[in-house]
Amino acid sequence: MNEPDRLFRTRPPTGPFVFDSDVARVFPDMIRRSVPGYALMLEGTAVAAATYCRDHTTAWDLGCSLGASTLAIDRGAGQREIRIVAVDRSPAMVERARTWLDDAGVSRRVALRVGDVRDVQPRNASLIVLNLVLQFVPVAERLPLLRRLRAGLVPGGALVLTEKIAPSPADAAHLRNWHASFKQLQGYSELEISRKRTALERVLVPESLETHHNRLLAAGFARPVLWMQAFEFVSWMAEAHER
Fold this sequence. Notes:
Number of strands: 7
Mean pLDDT: 96
CATH architecture of the domain at 38-166 and 204-240: 3-Layer(aba) Sandwich
CATH topology of the domain at 38-166 and 204-240: Rossmann fold
Structural class: alpha/beta
Low-confidence stretches: none
């Protein structure tokens, strides 16, 4: 059973944010109330699956957490004969994801694994999803990771990349304040928002729109399309064309 997120109401951050069993227990409530555009991100993931997934290929949900994007891929792919590989490095997340996917009746075509996305080498992939994951990867390792993912895509496949960005200095204050207002409207107190921000700042390193766009091109993707923005949260679809 999912619980309401009160983690930072009762405890100050004593270290960096970690996806442990406490976070896994409240994660559905936490992410819904913390990430504007989250529901649209999942719909876009389903659209990407409907557009790019093809028979006898694989789809990868990297950093799958509890499997919400995995379920979106399954829904979008419909009756196509694909195999979905879902990977997360948090055993607590994977354990709960397994229950979610079993309950949803999709586990028959999902391979769920504990692992670090930096160690993954997709093969025969028509779709790869990185929703709110790259921001936790050390900056120096982001381009090598994207190059490996690009190499694993079949021609005509695509990557969905969703990130929290570092906005331009001219927009930063507005977007930060609007995001804080969004979270307050979801019931978070200023103290909870501040404590969570402190914990996340130790592990989440956002970058600019331009940096992300240029890196996708450098990794070999063709014409990344920014299809969604909700305050500081953005998402691209980037295709893998024939080389």
